[in-house]
Amino acid sequence: MQKQEKIVKMFDAIAPTYDVANRVLSLGIDIKWRREACEFALSEYAKDDISIVDVACGTGDMMKIWQDTAKKQGVNINSLIGVDPSNGMLAKAREKFSDFNFKFIEAYADNTTLKSASADILSISYGIRNVIERKEALKEFNRVLKNDGLVVVLEFTRRSKEGFISRLRDFYLQKILPKIGGFISKNKEAYEYLPNSIEGFLDAQTFCDELRIYGFEIVFCKSFSADISTLFVAKKIRNC
Ligand SMILES: C[S@@+](CC[C@H](N)C(=O)[O-])C[C@H]1O[C@@H](n2cnc3c(N)ncnc32)[C@H](O)[C@@H]1O
């Protein structure tokens, strides 16, 4: 089995316990990070009838936060689409949001099957690190977004600083998280994958550089909670 396929199978396996593990492992702080991302992007974009695509949507939490934030800010979302290759995660999302007007597509980030220049905002939360064909995915995000559209990325980036806080973060990610995540999901391997995938990803500065290469201008880049999570908001300024 290819590496990408193995990753997707792993998410299929942990889908039933994914939400509980997420809330416990982040002590609920991820909700705050997600809200801040949506609030910032919607106030920055300043249009009031928009289409949003959430890539690597998983169980759909980011989609719900887009919807709630848009409502609060008086923005109409005319289409809210979640894209993910894991049918286990999508099944959970469909079950949770059966009463919502969300659409789901089973597809990879580098081939979403969406129309060119069809989205105002494309988000990917804690997903890009899992995408093996990352550069192809960034090209795809550029293709799917309208000119001036925003890509909104939340991710655990590789640390670039030394120091006590960074060591504490690493200790939590490498020693504590796999134990708790493994206990909740009964799948220790999946939660050992998380710190390894962060190590295999980029630091925040390098990811900003990569976004620029694929036609984006960085609008905002902010690290949360001792650099655990980083928010990137970038605008499509040219086709690539
Ligand atoms: C850590 S979960 C994040 C889910 C959700 N975005 C959230 O914030 O809770 C990562 C998600 O990325 C998806 N994924 C893995 N490889 C992918 C790829 N190549 N393209 C798109 N999504 C992918 C997985 O199926 C999984 O649902």
Question: How does this model look, in words?
Answer:
- This protein has a single domain (28-161, 203-236), classed as Vaccinia Virus protein VP39 (Rossmann fold, 3-Layer(aba) Sandwich).
- Helix content is 48%, strand content 23%.
- The chain has 9 helices and 7 strands.
- Strands 3-2-1-4-5-7-6 form a 7-stranded mixed sheet, with helices on both faces.
- Strand 2, helix 5 and strand 3 (103-106) form a beta-alpha-beta unit.
- The longest helix is centred in the C-terminal third of the chain and has 22 residues, at 164-185.
- The two termini are 31 Å apart.
- Bound molecules: S-adenosylmethionine (SAM).
Mind telling me which CATH architecture this is? 3-Layer(aba) Sandwich
Alpha plus pi helix count: 9
Q: Strand percentage, roughly? A: 15-25%
- Tell me the structural class: alpha/beta
Order of helices and strands: HHHEHEHEEHEHHHEE
Mean pLDDT: 94
Looking at this protein, list some descriptive labels.
240 residues; alpha/beta; Rossmann fold; 7-stranded mixed sheet; 9 helices; 48% helix; 23% strand; globular; binds S-adenosylmethionine
